[in-house]
Specification:
With 217 residues, the chain is an alpha+beta fold. It is built from 7 helices and 5 strands, in the order ααααααββαβββ. The protein has 2 domains: 4-44, no CATH class; 53-163, no CATH class. The strands form 2 sheets. A 3-stranded mixed beta sheet has the order 1-2-3, covered by helices on one side. Strands 4-5 form a two-stranded antiparallel sheet. It comes from Andreesenia angusta.
Length: 217
């Protein structure tokens, strides 16, 4: 316990007084618990570690609620789970700190998405195109299209366009064929007389009929 170092400082004339030790221990324990709770605030309310109501409180401070202002497609719950909500809060923090420039948009995007690319094209008419490259699941698409991810100045229209990069390469194919020949040696016993009856041999491909006569001597 953290209070032991304080109890060790009790003088000998009071060390053997159990009621005094009990009273002091309880008082110090209350203070110790308050100290630990205060110390854990930074950890528990870190945006990477916070969960549940801790994230909800961070959302109040940051200015982004857990419940979306629109109904997502494909039946997704408008109340975000912790993982998605954490992403939204990080983005909101970055948007709050955005300096209004396109390079800073790229910086914000790269800090949030490592597997999705973004390209901005200024149309010079109070609008810009945001080309998103890579796989984006449905809930992220909804967040992007409703302005939860990409920052923009007030009054500027954003056109979100999905792109996929396909790297076509030249390939050459070689078909290799091989043939083998094999000789089969067969011995015929002339001492035995073999009588073979006539039988038809029908070849389907050639549609021909052949009669074979053999007799052993």
């Amino acid at each position: 316990m953290a209070i032991e170092k304080y109890l060790d400082n009790i003088t000998s004339q009071h060390r053997d007084r159990p009621k005094f030790i009990s009273w002091l221990s309880k008082s110090l324990t209350i203070i110790d618990h308050a100290y630990l709770a205060t110390k854990s605030i930074d950890i528990n309310f870190d945006i990477d570690n916070a969960i549940g109501q801790q994230l909800d409180l961070l959302g109040i401070i940051i200015g982004r609620e857990r419940t979306l202002t629109f109904q997502p497609l494909n039946g997704h719950d408008p109340v975000l789970d912790d993982e998605t909500y954490r992403l939204v809060l990080k983005t909101k923090v970055a948007i709050n700190m955005w300096d209004g420039t396109i390079p800073h948009i790229y910086e914000i995007w790269e800090n949030i998405f490592s597997d999705i690319g973004l390209q901005i094209e200024d149309n010079q008419d109070m609008s810009f195109n945001a080309y998103v490259t890579g796989y984006v699941n449905q809930i992220r698409q909804d967040l992007i299209q409703h302005g939860y991810i990409v920052p923009k100045p007030e009054g500027v229209k954003v056109n979100y366009i999905g792109k996929s990069i396909v790297d076509f390469k030249c390939y050459s194919g070689v078909i290799v064929g091989s043939s083998t020949s094999q000789t089969i040696e067969m011995d015929f016993d002339y001492e035995d007389i073999v009588h073979l009856r006539e039988y038809p041999n029908l070849i389907i491909q050639g549609i021909s009929e052949t009669t074979l006569m053999m007799e052993g001597v």
